[in-house]
Amino acid sequence: MRVTQLCFALAASLVSVQAHIALWDEGMYGWDPEDPNQSEPVLPLMHLPFNQWWFHGYINKPPQEGKFMELPSGGTYKGQVACNKALTTYGQNDYQQTGIYACDGQGDTGGIGAMHTSDQWGSPDPKDVKGCGIAIAYESDVNKIKPEDFTVISTNYTCPWFKDVDFHIPADLPPCPEGGCHCMWGWIHAADAGSEQNYLLGYRCNVTGATGVTPLPAPQTANKCDYPADTSNCTVAGKQMHFWYNERNNNPQGEYDPPFYNGEYGFMNGAQTDLFATVGGAQSSSSSSIPANNSGSGSSASSANPASTSPQVAASGAYGDAQPSTTASATSVSSSSAVANTDYTTQTTVTIDTTMVRPSDGSTTNDAALTADATINVQAHAAIATSVSTSNKTKTCSASKRKRHLERLMNSPELMKKHQARNQRRRQERLNKTRIEADLVQMSKRNL
């Protein structure tokens, strides 16, 4: 009995400290109605084949019959993001649901570890959490949906920080087909508080009170830009979700340049009211109608009228699987990341190299490949950062700081070696913790 209690205590401790974030809703694929302490959906996705990260691997675990994520047309979806279901109103203990943050923790830094941010714990206006997004696909058959079918319809710049989070829904969405739509929630954190990890979950959803009559246009990959200060490189109209650092990506950037659901990729804070916009503004909704976010969601962004898209640039990432159709020199790009402007026209299957993670015995299975990959990645980003410093078109957040950091790495082989070794250790630590957590959770369930 004592061993069982110890295992359960260890599992609960790991869940509260090492877990990450999920948007909890009964319409979620993978929802366990029998487990008020559910935590598996919060595990991060990285270096995975398509069938393991798509719908977080839960595509064959649909929600219960009649359960939908309800999105009110022109209204606000009141979501709950947390590192464990027990912390939300879906849990069974009231005393666990009193926290205001997505993941509370002990000490001065609270639950920052789970939220991967450099923001100060308790901040009323966090800046480094990078935002979450909700996307929709107008297809009721989950097996017919492709990644490029999902259009981001709402973002929240300060997600995940506060547990209760508002997602404002556009008013001109059309009704869902019979059987409902499918939605996805996604979050990718800043590289300065951990890297590679991204989070994505699927839901059966429905748009309530919908009066729109125009189908959503096919969304495009979101370009890196600087909304609303400079929209010249922003993707016009609907944008796809960020599928990154796994197989079958639409963003092939390396681990030091993750994509976000905020102004750095042209997303408004709140409802995406430009879904039907066209190049030149022939058909466009005004972003000034976005309601001010509350409940910890920050202020709404000002309006913008993107006029054109930017030239595509040839680029391929270590984990991307698509090739662009057009090329241009890196110096002609107005964005701080050449790979963000790629027009993908093909999808192929790649094999994920599992030796990218250092074995637990400390051997150097693929150190040469890792070093070469890291060197190419840093060189590319250093060149882009240099180009951006002389560009008047696009300003990027912390570009100067990033440029100095990359230059230091390029000029010091020793620093480069330490930098890569640190990331290798982090990968292995995360892998080990994930395995330990899963083992302990299963052990505790078997002994209950």
Structure description:
The protein contains 6 helices and 9 strands. The protein has 448 residues and is an alpha+beta fold. It has one domain (2-447). It has a 6-stranded mixed beta sheet, with no helix packed on it. The protein has a 3-stranded antiparallel beta sheet with strand order 1-3-6, with no helix packed on it. Helix 1 crosses helix 6, helix 4 (367-389) crosses helix 5 (399-411) and helix 5 crosses helix 6 (413-447). Residues 1-18 and 281-403 have low confidence and may be disordered.
Could you give a quick summary of the protein structure above?
The protein has six helices and nine strands; from the N terminus they run αβαββαββββββααα. With about 450 residues, the protein is an alpha+beta fold.
How are the SSEs placed, and which strands pair?
Layout: H1 2-18, E1 22-23, H2 50-53, E2 69-72, E3 76-82, H3 112-115, E4 132-137, E5 151-156, E6 164-168, E7 181-188, E8 198-208, E9 270-271, H4 367-389, H5 399-411, H6 413-447
Parallel strand pairs: 2-8
Antiparallel strand pairs: 1-3, 3-6, 4-5, 4-7, 5-9, 7-8
- Which geometry do the CA atoms define? globular
Spatial sequence of strands, sheet with the most strands: 2-8-7-4-5-9
Radius of gyration: 21 Å
Structural class: alpha+beta
Total domain modules: 1
Oligomer: single chain
Low-confidence blocks of residues: 1-18, 281-403
Order of helices and strands: HEHEEHEEEEEEHHH
Described by strand count, sense and barrel closure, the largest sheet is: 6 strands, mixed
- End-to-end Cα distance, whole Å, is 10 Å
Mean pLDDT: 72
Helix content class: 10-25%
Q: Tally the helices: what do you get?
A: 6
Query: Can you count the beta strands?
Result: 9
Strand content range = 5-15%
Family: Belongs to the polysaccharide monooxygenase AA14 family.
Region (Disordered): 279-339
Subcellular location: Secreted
Pfam families: LPMO_AA14
